Amino acid sequence: MNDQASRPLDRPKARLPRGFQDSAGKMLAIQEQLVGKLAEVYSSYGFEWLTTPSIEFADALGKFLPDLDRPHEGVFSFQDDDGQWLVLRYDLTAPLARYVAEHYDTLPFPYRRFQTGLVFRDEKPGPGRYREFVQFDADTVGTASMAADAEFCMLAADSLEALGLARGDYLVKINNRKVLNGVLELIGVPEGAAGDALRLAVLRAMDKLERLGVGGVAQLLGAGRKDESGDFTKGAGLASKDIDRVLGFLHAGGADRGAVCAALADLVKGSEIGEQGTVELLEIDAGLSAAGFGQDRARIDPAIVRGLAYYTGPVFEAELTFETKGEDGRPIRFGSVGGGGRYDNLVERFLGRKVPATGVSIGVSRLAAALELRGLLSDVAHVGPVVVLVLDRDRLPHYQAMVGELRAGGIRAELYLGQGGMRAQLKYADKRAAPIVVIEGGDERAKGEVTLKDMALGAELSSEIKSRAEWAKGSASQVSIKREELTRRVHEILTRRRP
Amino acid sequence: MNDQASRPLDRPKARLPRGFQDSAGKMLAIQEQLVGKLAEVYSSYGFEWLTTPSIEFADALGKFLPDLDRPHEGVFSFQDDDGQWLVLRYDLTAPLARYVAEHYDTLPFPYRRFQTGLVFRDEKPGPGRYREFVQFDADTVGTASMAADAEFCMLAADSLEALGLARGDYLVKINNRKVLNGVLELIGVPEGAAGDALRLAVLRAMDKLERLGVGGVAQLLGAGRKDESGDFTKGAGLASKDIDRVLGFLHAGGADRGAVCAALADLVKGSEIGEQGTVELLEIDAGLSAAGFGQDRARIDPAIVRGLAYYTGPVFEAELTFETKGEDGRPIRFGSVGGGGRYDNLVERFLGRKVPATGVSIGVSRLAAALELRGLLSDVAHVGPVVVLVLDRDRLPHYQAMVGELRAGGIRAELYLGQGGMRAQLKYADKRAAPIVVIEGGDERAKGEVTLKDMALGAELSSEIKSRAEWAKGSASQVSIKREELTRRVHEILTRRRP
Q1: Do the domain assignments include residue B222?
Q2: Residue B15 lies in a domain
Q3: Which residues in chain B are closer than 8 Å to A417, comparing Cβ atoms?
Q4: Buried b vs exposed e over A201-235: b needs ≥16 C-beta within 10 Å?
């Protein structure tokens, strides 16, 4: 409000609401390429591209916000002129449920689709948390086959490699809610709604393994835990032997997926739902193995919980295993860039019958950040245009012809369109990250020549050459060429400069 | 409401609000490729990609809805939790003005950017008119140079050719509001706000030339016009000699852009603003000619008006010249797929000073419809996946391995994941537009073979072969191959089938 004093009151201030952002340059280019590559991979697996509108009826989308820990977060809503409530979609799964229900009689089943687009959350924004962001989702609707779940694990691994990540830089982790429910059953948590609160408390505790370690999880499974600031979190209240059983589940391991399954089967012996869960995991393992996806790409990990309450079977998560710096500056693993699982209840709201489905959601901006960290996609992501300077304004069409030639030769090129002199034009070219500047003044024209200035080389030289005298004669970054060789010579420099 | 009777009341109905649509299949694929190609061309001209959020402050966007004829149409708006009004953007120009004002001190000028995304209109939907649609915009901000306007004319022509349209299938038409204002000045329409209503009436009349012909326009310029239904539209009330002057302007022609400019200069002699307009048109002509854009690609056409009130100088429109069918079934020219012009006032709202700008907006869905009509982009837009059938459910991992092999060979392929038998699976493959189905039953397996069914050939044959007996033995669309030759043979058939 302060700066309104220096601004006439009728003039609006140019600014964005909190939680929204503009995007340009390198990160935008990486993100666009990323989405394009993902679309390619999902399409190669037979998935069909779908788009649905940003705005839907409130009752058609319902409210299945995907984060258990933020139950009060909301959706943007407003009334249509006939009084019906409309909402901005908060994810891409609820619209899929509406779409499948609406076209149930004509869609091919199992129906595989992918979708990418903006989703909206009317919630308190924070660092890296926006009120509008891009999601990329894929789902298979209408099959209970574990082959569909195995497929998403393969897709995750193939997608990450298609984006340039090396084997070993990522790991797909798989778990099954049914196994977890089996453990809970054996320690006496009631099935269904009666056990919901306790089940949620146990899930939440387990989800904190990486952050709090075994001790912290044990406290949260038991009486509760006081953190460093002195805040107390009430625990799930499990008995000591039950805590041990949950911790045993979390750490069930083995040399390969089959061995982990065997260990889990042992832990849930006697629970029907638990045993069913381990059989499903074995089926996923068989699918992965047949398609050549080994332990180095996809593992079974009982510690994978995934927050969403609606998962009913297998859950999976794609993790990047390389390190980055945490908020405190210490190295941490980059962590999850997406995940999903099986849910059977979403379409049921409309049709009154269960329609089994499984799917995955990818965090586009987080994955883009990882690719940038790894230097992937970014080499093609942002090279500025060649800038043709205008030294003689009366000859604008003549300079225009040069730009046209360069473009016809496949070179990104532009004409300087402003009013500035030589110095301003060079500054402009620098801001635009131009690799080369084309200069033709009267002297050059008289000789039928133009000058090419290699901006990157120029910057290198100017950082080395310290004295003004050296700088003045330092013309190593410039070369005079014949006018008719313009496109060929620009091409040469660009090719030399390519990383 | 009717069908709620057969549905429990607590079950929502799966449907969309009016004016919104889902999109899938061929048109979506064409549209996605279209936007990608446009982005490539604009990038090659040095334009930078920008994205801005869907939601902005109401006062920051203002309300410059681009259609004069729909003054009551609105924007979607709602209040933030602190009481401030937010709106869904209704175009991509108002957010650009906000962005430029916000980053005025750091952007390189002239600033060239392109942007594509959804825009929203809270208005009455109709056939082909939606409340959410995709726009593609490009603008150059911070230069008064006509070279910038010439560039957009070149861009329009180059973009359409990059999309596969032939020279002769399109025409870029150029006009200048200043020339038009010159004509109006000479017939006594007052400059500025005093003449606004009359100017608007004349513009509207001119804009109807294609639809109503010279006679209709003459009536609308004069006392008024009664249409076939008997409805009367009040005219601009011009005197007869002034009507002639306006009609003369509309029909000013010549062998090339230079000749049209000369004819226009003649018509506005004595009006300073009018003469300035013809000089600007000559500058645009010079830029186009220098870059090799002849009369076959870009023409000066005084009949181009463009509805937007905020244009202040050159306006341009890209028209497709081939024919399609009108609402009455009669052939009409496809018409405009985009256009734009110079506007100098949008950023002024924020900064209190004029910032000259010029830009273009492309109607993505309309252009996509034109490409589909011409059969462009669509050949690659939708080939279904190869479907591997599952005849022996116990051998799912084995079938999975086949799919993996096909994909590794660069072939779009999927495993049937449902519960259906052979017949249901073939029907599924048909719905998915699968080019080939891979079949391996017990007999084939015993011989180390698989069967490939060419679905397109099968469809052709079944339309020719009429008797069941012929159909039963008609196996020309199927071929048995060695299991180890799977990928190679599938490749062969796909290559043969390619158009």
Answers
A1: no
A2: no
A3: 110, 140, 143, 145, 147-148, 151
A4: bbbbbbbebeebeeebbbbbbbeebeeeeeeeeeb
Q: Cα–chain-centroid distance for residue A181?
A: 30
Q: Domain check: are B353 and B462 in the same one?
A: no
Cβ A12–B102 below 8 Å, yes or no? no
* Domain match, B390 and B368 both: no
Closest to A58 in 3D by CA, of A72, A43, A74:
A74
CB A323 within 8 A of CB A190: no
Closest approach of chain A CAs to the CA of B33, in angstroms? Answer: 11
Cβ atoms within 10 A of the Cβ of A241, count?
8
Between strands B449-454 and B331-343, the pairing is unpaired
Q: What is the domain-level CATH number for residue B249?
A: 3.30.930.10
Closest CA to A164 of A419, A462, A378, A447: A378
Whether B276 and B182 share a structural domain: yes
Residues B364 and B389 in one domain: no
Residue listed under structure tokens 């006594």:
B188
* A interface test, pick of B7, B22, B99, B100 with most A CB neighbours within 10 Å: B22
Q: Evaluate whether residue A319 is within a structural domain.
A: yes
**Do β-strands B386-388 and B413-415 pair in parallel, antiparallel, or remain unpaired?**
parallel
Give yes or no for a cis peptide into A314 (omega within 30° of 0). no
Could you tell me which residue, B331 or B160, shows the higher pLDDT?
Answer: B160
Do B39 and B141 have their domain in common? yes
Q: Are strands B386-388 and B436-439 parallel, antiparallel or unpaired?
A: parallel
Domain end residue (candidates: B344, B378, B412): B378
| Residue A270 falls in which region: left (phi positive, over 0), alpha (psi -120 to 50) or beta | left
Q: How far is A487 from B290, CA to CA, in rounded Å?
A: 17
Q: What are B432's two structure tokens?
A: 């998915």
For chains A and B, CB pairs below 8 A equal: 273
Same domain, B347 and B415: no
- Same structural domain for residues A257 and A403? no
The enclosing domain of A429 has a CATH number of 3.40.50.800
Q: Which helix (H) or strand (E) holds A468?
A: helix A468-473
Number of domains in chain A: 2
* CA dist., res. A447 & res. A454, Å (int): 21
Percent of chain A with pLDDT over 90: 60
Give per-residue pLDDT as tens, B345-395. Answer: 888 889 988 899 999 999 898 899 899 888 888 766 577 899 999 999 889
Of the candidates A122, A123, A266, which has an alpha carbon nearest to the alpha carbon of residue A182? A266
| B54/A54 Cβ within 8 A | yes
Helices (H), B331-441: 348-351, 364-373, 378-381, 396-408, 422-431
Helix, strand, coil abundance in chain B, percent, nearest 5: 45, 20, 35
Residues in contact with B352: Cβ distance below 8 Å, sequence separation at least 6, in sequence order: A8, A11
Q: Which domain holds residue B482?
A: 384-497
Is B221 inside any structural domain?
no
Measured CA to CA, the distance from residue A282 to residue A294 in angstroms comes to 14
Picking from B17, B110, B145, the nearest residue to A80 by CB comes out as B17
Cis previous bond, B110, omega within 30: yes
What residues in B contact A52, CB-CB < 8 Å? 22-23
Q: What is this model's ipTM?
A: 0.87
Distances (CA, A) of B316 to A402, B299, B304, B337, B343: 24, 10, 7, 11, 12
From the list B60, B76, B99, which residue is nearest A78 (CB)?
B76
Q: Is the pLDDT of residue A465 over 90?
A: no
CA distance linking residue A288 with residue A150, whole number of Å: 6
Instruction: Examine the pLDDT at A219 and tell me if it is beyond 60.
Output: yes
Domain check: are B293 and B411 in the same one? Answer: no
Closest Cα in chain A, distance from residue B241 (Å): 39
Contact B95, B119 (CB under 8 A): no
Flag the least confident range among A155-164, A259-268, B366-375: B366-375
Residue ending a domain, among A348, A373, A398, is A373
